């Protein structure tokens, strides 16, 4: 039938012309949870009856699911079946086929909802595409992808206002840079900061003192320090990361990703390729802003130095995966090599 946006979904739910099958998923888990709840409430009511509402979690009994789908509504217009955060990665080929048989046999009067508010299958590359293809043709698909920077800023301002505070666009952007782009986390951070901030306006100082900084933001700060030849800040940041017992593999992955972003936008600029083209080619979607950040962070470092840094990171990744080493010594050596490369490649 259709792939709907949030506004189209609002209208669809209000009209109550429900489809047989829905797939609700995506990166914005707050939206996934919100529209799953709205749809279930619209179909089954605020206090749904056990006769007409059947909910399944990560572990699915296929016999019970199949039976629930076929139940005739009792004193209600619809029989609602919700499958939330199913453990699709644990499905085998027979499970995939059985699940498909069930959702393809949904009768009139039943509304079958598959929602992924917390997880997304990684190993099972069959079940979700097959379900999406079927639901797109025979029901409704709602995929809530990452919001743009401006959309996130508007949400932050709205939540601050609800707490009796105001926040500038600059400070909202700063909060995003520290806490990431997850709506649930951003809302929790704004609620927390609003409760402790003394003034009417949430300041940059309030954010720096109270915000929970993501690992990605910490490692990006580490890469910025290296690229700006600030050895003291780089090693101080590394001290904090190890004190907080962050995983070395995760730190190495994020650091490498930061350098890859920088190299991509540098080579694109030198080749006359636009940021939009790079973002589309490498599927940055609404994360294209990281290319701007990477470009700014590396403006004083030569292309040759960036290329050499990637070689160092690749070699470090190989060493980390193949040899038993002391994580702290490994990372200190890596940062020292990257600092030396950035210094030699200063422009």
Description:
By secondary structure, the protein is an alpha/beta fold. The protein has 3 domains: 2-143, P-loop containing nucleotide triphosphate hydrolases (Rossmann fold, 3-Layer(aba) Sandwich); 149-210, Helicase, Ruva Protein, domain 3; 215-344, Zinc Finger, Delta Prime, domain 3 (Up-down Bundle). 60% of the residues lie in helices and 8% in strands. The chain has 16 helices and 6 strands. The protein has helices at residues 6-15, 29-44, 62-69, 93-103, 127-138, 149-162, 169-179, 183-196, 204-210, 215-227, 231-243, 248-271, 275-281, 289-297, 303-322, 327-344; strands spanning 2-3, 21-25, 53-56, 79-84, 110-115, 140-143. The protein has a 6-stranded parallel beta sheet, sandwiched between helices. Helix 11 packs antiparallel against helix 16 and helix 12 packs across helix 14 (289-297). The longest helix is centred in the last third of the chain and has 24 residues, at 248-271.
Layout of helices and strands, plus pairs?
Elements: E1 2-3, H1 6-15, E2 21-25, H2 29-44, E3 53-56, H3 62-69, E4 79-84, H4 93-103, E5 110-115, H5 127-138, E6 140-143, H6 149-162, H7 169-179, H8 183-196, H9 204-210, H10 215-227, H11 231-243, H12 248-271, H13 275-281, H14 289-297, H15 303-322, H16 327-344
Parallel strand pairs: 1-6, 2-5, 2-6, 3-4, 4-5
- Give the CATH architecture of the largest domain: 3-Layer(aba) Sandwich
The strand order across the widest sheet is 1-6-2-5-4-3
The end-to-end distance, rounded to whole angstroms, is: 56 Å
Rg, Å, rounded: 24 Å
Cα shape = globular
CATH class of the largest domain: Alpha Beta
Low-confidence stretches: none
Supply the number of helical segments: 16
Percent of residues in beta strands: 5-15%
Main beta sheet strand tally, sense and closure: 6 strands, parallel
Structural class: alpha/beta
């Amino acid at each position: 039938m259709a792939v709907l946006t949030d506004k189209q979904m609002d209208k669809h739910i209000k009209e109550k012309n429900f489809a047989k099958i829905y797939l609700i998923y995506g990166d914005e888990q707050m939206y996934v949870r919100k529209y799953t709840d709205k749809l279930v409430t619209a179909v089954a009511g605020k206090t749904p009856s056990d006769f007409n509402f059947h909910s399944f979690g990560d572990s699915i009994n296929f016999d019970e699911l199949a039976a629930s789908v076929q139940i005739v509504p009792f004193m209600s217009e619809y029989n609602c079946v919700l499958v939330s955060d199913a453990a699709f990665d644990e499905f085998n080929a027979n499970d995939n086929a059985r699940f498909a048989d069930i959702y393809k046999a949904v009768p009139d009067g039943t509304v079958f909802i598959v929602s992924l508010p917390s997880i997304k299958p990684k190993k099972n590359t069959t079940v979700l595409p097959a379900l999406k293809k079927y639901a797109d043709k025979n029901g409704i698909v709602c995929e809530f992808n990452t919001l743009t920077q401006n959309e996130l800023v508007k949400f932050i301002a709205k939540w601050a206002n609800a707490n009796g505070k105001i926040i500038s666009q600059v400070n909202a952007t700063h909060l995003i840079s520290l806490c990431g782009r997850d709506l649930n986390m951003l809302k929790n951070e704004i609620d927390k900061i609003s409760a402790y901030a003394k003034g009417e306006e949430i300041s940059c100082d309030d954010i720096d003192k109270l915000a929970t900084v993501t690992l990605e933001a910490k490692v990006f700060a580490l890469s910025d320090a290296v690229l700006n030849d600030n050895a003291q800040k780089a090693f101080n940041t590394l001290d904090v990361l190890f004190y907080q017992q962050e995983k070395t593999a995760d730190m190495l992955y994020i650091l490498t990703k930061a350098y890859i972003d920088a190299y991509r936008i540098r080579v694109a600029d030198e080749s006359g390729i636009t940021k939009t083209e790079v973002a589309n080619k490498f599927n940055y979607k609404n994360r294209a802003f990281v290319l701007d950040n990477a470009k700014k962070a590396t403006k004083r470092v030569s292309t040759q130095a960036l290329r050499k840094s990637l070689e160092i990171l690749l070699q470090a990744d190989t060493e980390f995966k193949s040899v038993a080493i002391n994580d702290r010594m490994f990372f200190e050596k890596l940062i020292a090599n990257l600092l030396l490369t950035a210094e030699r490649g200063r422009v």
